[in-house]
Amino acid sequence: MTQRTPIIAGNWKMHNTITEAAALVTALTKAGNKNHAEIIVAPSYTSLHIVTRLTKDSEIQVAAQDVHWEDKGAFTSAVSPIQAKDAGATLTLIGHSERRSVFGDTDEILNKKVAAAMRHGLKVIFCVGETLQEREAGKTMQVIEGQLKNGLANFTEEQLNGIIIAYEPVWAIGTGKTATPEQAQEVHAAIRAYLAKTYSDKFAQATRILYGGSVKDTNVDEIMAKPDVDGALVGGQSLIAEKFARIINFN
Ligand code: PGA
Fold first, then answer.
1. Where are the domains of the chain?
2. Residue bearing the bigger pLDDT, 3 or 111
3. Quick one: pLDDT band at residue 230, thresholds 50, 70, 90?
């Protein structure tokens, strides 16, 4: 089996002023990294530049929370992949559930955003996940496979090489309700099986699949212990330096 480097990513969402972001990331540069994980933070656009500057000599990588699908143009308020890259991002989230549900990003839009990010060499963390209603109707994998199929449509395995998938059950995001390690493992294994079936076993074995949804310092160890969980995408607790440091240094 391929050895996959773990990833611990923090999504700061619409939090932190520039001053707060600078203080937080400075604390994180001193957090240690006993698992040799890839550490990623996704600040607001306004803090991308300062956070990149402050992490220059550290292992921390900086992600945008989203990018537009065009390189430039009349798209008031949007940020293009060129701009995100210029501000220092080397990765971007695409398809976070808040983008899907609050801002109406459809699979087709997300597909264009993935293309735009890849065009400019931004690594993609592609987020998928089911609502509680979908889970209770037994449609979890049907929903996730649809999100993967449509969101990643028209790309070859070669193009998708290095993509990171984040499984974030909508009912667990910001609710304090975490999927059990068993629930996470079940979906992660199913996603890996889908990747093997759709691309190749080699691709499936190499692709990192992160879990997100109320990951905390108190539950990260048991979640990370599951064989198909390769990392965590953390919201709330990534805003608190000591908590996120503990998550980075999971046991
Ligand atoms: P949460 O958010 O950790 O606050 O549940 C996770 C996410 O939205 O990525």
1. 7-248
2. 111
3. very high
The domain 7-248: what is its CATH number? 3.20.20.70
Instruction: Tell me the whole-structure pTM to 2 decimals.
Output: 0.97
Helix (H, G, I), strand (E, B) or coil at 167: strand
Residues with CB under 6 A from ligand 1: 11, 168, 173-174, 212-215, 233-236
- Judged by average pLDDT, the poorest of 61-75, 162-176, 197-211 is 162-176
CA distance 111 to 16: 29
Strands 7-11 and 38-42: parallel
User: In angstroms, what CA-CA distances link 96 with 42, 164, 165, 227, 242?
Assistant: 12, 13, 11, 24, 25
Q: In this predicted model, what pLDDT tens digit does every residue of 95-139 receive, in sequence order?
A: 999 999 999 999 999 999 999 999 999 999 999 999 999 999 999
Distance 250 CA to ligand 1 centre (A): 17
User: 214 alpha carbon to ligand 1 midpoint, in Å?
Assistant: 6
Q: Of all protein residues, whose CA lies closest to atom 7 belonging to ligand 1?
A: 235
Catalytic positions? 96, 168
